[in-house]
């Protein structure tokens, strides 16, 4: 009920005007230039953070599961990943501002110790790259949690059979491991995309209105004074639901395929 009732409320409101009459103007408003730009910016940030989180998360998970590291590192990594994957919103935004802001700890250390002015290079935490970097903080641990069971599902007999047949490590990963893992990896990337696309509090607390992304524009439509048009905000939220719904459906489809392969 907590999921369906708000969704139904948004769907109804997306096709109403301020007086409650049926209209398609809100749906037409989704194709305005500033709204399309916001969707495109959100898609780029989500896709970039999903790809980066998937690559780095896979490498971390592989090193913990198959990298012959000390045994205590894996439970430590999994515990940290469980905490970090849920660390978002205003606390995460404040942490990155205190770390990589104009007067942040890392920014000032680089300037005082190495004479590197990070912001003179064009970097700013209130930008596409800054927000993507912030999202990676919870995207990478989430990828670790998702892909670790898939790596555990790779049977030792497959590697032994490859070695017995004269296969190299590259051939094993190319012809055996990756074909088994790719549904899990692609499905996890879709989940990371949906996770970043729906993040609201972190983006708003970090960038305010300096970035034109869907969550911030939606907030301005519903709660703002200048762009106040709640029903257009409902239509934008409906568009977000459609995008995240499709990506989650793709994730569930690929997850079921991965489970059938590993069975």
From TrEMBL:
Signal peptide: none
UniProt organism field: Rhodoferax aquaticus
Primary location class: membrane
Lineage: Bacteria, Pseudomonadati, Pseudomonadota, Betaproteobacteria, Burkholderiales
Localization per Swiss-Prot or TrEMBL: Cell membrane
Residues spanning the membrane: 38-65, 77-98, 118-151, 172-193, 199-220, 232-254
One GO CC term on file: plasma membrane
ABC transmembrane type-1 domain: residues covered: 39-253
BP terms from Gene Ontology: transmembrane transport
Keywords: Cell membrane, Membrane, Transmembrane, Transmembrane helix, Transport
Lineage top rank: taxon: Bacteria
Protein name, per record: ABC transporter permease subunit
Family: Belongs to the binding-protein-dependent transport system permease family. CysTW subfamily.
Membrane disposition: Multi-pass membrane protein
């Amino acid at each position: 009920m907590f999921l369906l009732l708000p969704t139904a409320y948004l769907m109804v409101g997306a096709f109403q005007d301020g007086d409650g009459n049926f209209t398609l103007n809100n749906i037409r408003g989704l194709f305005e230039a500033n709204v399309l730009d916001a969707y495109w910016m959100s898609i780029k940030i989500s896709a970039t953070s999903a790809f980066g989180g998937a690559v780095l998360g896979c490498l971390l998970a592989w090193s913990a599961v198959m990298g012959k590291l000390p045994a205590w590192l894996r439970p430590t990594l999994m515990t940290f990943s469980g905490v970090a994957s849920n660390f978002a919103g205003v606390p995460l935004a404040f942490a990155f501002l205190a770390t990589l802001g104009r007067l942040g700890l890392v920014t000032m250390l680089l300037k005082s110790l190495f004479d590197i002015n990070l912001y003179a290079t064009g970097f700013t935490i209130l930008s596409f790259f800054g927000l993507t970097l912030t999202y990676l903080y919870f995207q990478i641990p989430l990828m670790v949690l998702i892909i670790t069971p898939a790596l555990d599902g790779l049977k030792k007999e497959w590697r032994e059979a490859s070695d017995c047949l004269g296969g190299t490590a590259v051939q094993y990963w190319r012809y055996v491991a990756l074909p088994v893992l790719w549904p899990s990896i692609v499905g996890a990337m879709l989940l990371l995309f949906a996770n970043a696309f729906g993040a609201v509090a972190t983006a708003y607390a970090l960038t305010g209105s300096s970035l034109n992304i869907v969550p911030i524009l939606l907030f301005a439509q519903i709660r703002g004074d200048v762009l106040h048009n709640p029903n257009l905000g409902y239509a934008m939220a409906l568009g977000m639901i459609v995008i995240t719904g499709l990506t989650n459906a793709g994730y569930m489809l690929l997850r079921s395929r991965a489970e059938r392969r590993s069975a």
